[in-house]
Amino acid sequence: MNTTKQVNVMIGLLFMSVLVFGAYIATEGAREADARDQQAEQMALRGARLFVANCRACHGLEGMGPDEGGVGPRLNNVAFLVLEADNAFHLKATPAGEVRNVRDFIFNTVSCGRSNTAMPLWSERYGGPLSETQVNYIVSLVTQGRWDLVEEVGVEHDAPLLAQHAEALAKFGKPYDDPTLPADQNLSKNQKKAVDAAITAGTAQRYEDLGVDAQKRVHEALKKSILVPDPSKLSVTSKNCGQYGASVLEFRERNPLLGPAAGGEAKPAGGAAGGDPAKLGLQIATANGCVACHTPNGQASVGPTWKGLFDSNREFVSGAPVKADEAYLKESITNPNAKVVKGFQPNLMPETFATTLKPEQIDQLIAYIKSLK
Q1: 285: Cβ contacts below 8 Å, ≥ 6 apart
Q2: Is the dihedral of CA 119, 288, 329, 230 positive or negative?
Q3: Closest to 175 in 3D by CA, of 124, 232, 221, 229
Q4: Mind listing the pLDDT tens digit for each residue in 332-372?
Q5: Which residues contact 232 (CB under 8 A, 6 or more apart)?
Q6: Which H or E element spans position 104?
Q7: Exposed (0-12), middle (13-18) or buried (19+): which is 237, by Cβ within 10 Å?
Q8: Where are the domains of the chain?
Q9: Cα dihedral 102, 103, 106, 107 in deg (nearest 10)
Q10: CA distance 183 to 99
Q11: Does residue 74 contact residue 63 with C-beta atoms inside 8 Å?
């Protein structure tokens, strides 16, 4: 090969190298974005697995809390949502400072629990079972709102339990395990062994083969065997290792979906409830963790149920009985130890709501309690 050809080959190779390098540089942004998306997906998936294993008993499989029969507050909540630049709502990305505040709020709550509530601490640093990396996986799940992954993992997790209940009802007419029922209404040890043996042998009654009514009974039994059956027996934590005080008020009113879109104006907080005081009160009760201790359906819990509370006669550890009117409810929210209802313990309910809630929010919370007749 003569010198001219060698030079031409070298120029051609150099030109090709420039093209390849240029193409690599041009697609760098797309590859970085794809890598970020894959990492976010993996973190959310790991968070979903941890949630199903550790959190769903109180917060429900879909993170809906009391709406699923759970005793913990609703986590499937737009208040926790962090929007990326290319979000499905076509809204501006959440500012970096706000992202940090939201993530810190959830991280601290999971790590440290909630003082005077049934929410335990989870971080290894404070004696819990989860590493900080695992806590961050849960934070990623909640801030991304990936409850579809939780349901997907939950369905896989529940498959053997579904089979157990299906076989138990088909063979013995009793649930495999329902902690809300007396022992004689559940399977005995020998019956459970028979069910497990049938599942191992592949001869168990399949859920798909059950009738509609039996399938409903299976789901009800499964739900009861997984959710906390008696919240009043939960241990109440008194530890606090870095939680928010009055400054959390701004966060609890947060709704990124009501923020300004491109060229739009911000809508007032609370618009999602359409201005209905009772609906706004439910949002406040959920955001402030009230529903972890007070049920809306009469079920026993750490604190008195709110069902039928308004206008009822209340008896206390000390003092004369009082009718639960609006004045009583307001006093109970702002000064919970003033009148302690018989059968319940003092010093469990936070005494900070007089400062962390606005007067109109207290009124909305009362409106919600009044609606639970």
Answers
A1: 291, 294, 365, 368
A2: negative
A3: 221
A4: 999 999 999 998 888 878 887 888 788 898 999 999 999 99
A5: 300, 301, 302
A6: helix 96-112
A7: middle
A8: 39-243, 270-371
A9: -150
A10: 48
A11: yes
CATH architecture, domain 270-371:
Orthogonal Bundle (1.10)
Distance CA 254, CA 341 (A): 33
The Cα 285–Cα 74 span in angstroms is: 10
3-state percent helix, strand, coil for the chain, nearest multiple of 5: 55, 5, 40
pTM of this structure: 0.66
Please state, as a whole number, how many other Cβ atoms lie within 10 Å of the Cβ of residue 3.
7
Q: What is the DSSP string of 202-248?
A: T-SPPGGGS-HHHHHHHHHHHHHHHS-S-GGGSPPB---SS---TTH
Q: What is the DSSP letter of 91?
A: B
CA distance 288 to 57: 19
Q: Which two tokens stand for residue 7?
A: 């030079």
pLDDT beyond 80 at 138: yes
